[in-house]
Write a structure and sequence with these properties.
single chain, alpha/beta, Guanylate Kinase phosphate binding domain, 23% strand, globular
């Protein structure tokens, strides 16, 4: 099975996925992006960092199962990330890309992660973003939340351990069927 984890930027998707990998054998898909590396990120582990020209070349080669522009940057998931994997496959996708992929592949399982607005603002601020950027992301988060009914599961990330347990339970339940 292929699981798509999505939600607004800053809700804790990466933290949840990293913790999941401590509990279950997963293949976490690595997306391509045109944004710059952040401190501590590793090319080929966190993302495949490419130029916009390289990204466009991959689009022209029909390399991606999905891709989206998010803010000023492009993100895409290569088809190679979901083929011939024996582990549980997790895709961490932007909401629009995830929604399109779920429509195209209804057998994929969509998990929407969210948090309350106050916590989201605090997390975005802790990343060093200015008030204007935070306001834009809050508006975008509210638009993204309008799509959460399209997902198989919705998780409110109040507590990391609880959120991880909920996702593990979902995966174990569906994998046993």
């Amino acid at each position: 099975m292929i699981y798509i984890i999505t939600g607004p930027s800053g809700v804790g998707k990466n933290t949840i996925i990293n913790e999941l990998s401590n509990h279950i054998n997963i293949h976490f898909s690595i997306s391509h992006t045109t944004r710059s590396k952040r401190d501590g990120e590793i090319d080929g582990k966190d993302y495949f960092f490419v130029t916009e020209d390289e990204f466009n070349s991959l689009i022209n080669k029909n390399f991606f199962i999905e891709y989206e522009q998010y803010g000023d940057y492009f993100y895409g998931t290569g088809k190679d990330q979901i083929k011939n994997k024996k582990e549980v496959i997790l895709l961490d996708l932007e909401v629009n890309g995830a929604t399109k992929l779920l429509k195209e592949y209804p057998h994929f399982i969509g998990i929407f992660i969210d948090i309350d607005n106050q916590t989201l603002r605090e997390r975005l601020r802790s990343r060093g973003h200015n008030d204007e950027f935070i306001q834009e992301r809050m508006k975008l988060a509210n638009l993204q939340r309008e799509k959460k009914h399209l997902y198989n599961f919705n998780i409110q990330n109040v507590d990391l351990n609880t959120s991880v347990k909920e996702i593990i339970d979902i995966i174990y339940d569906l994998e046993e069927r």
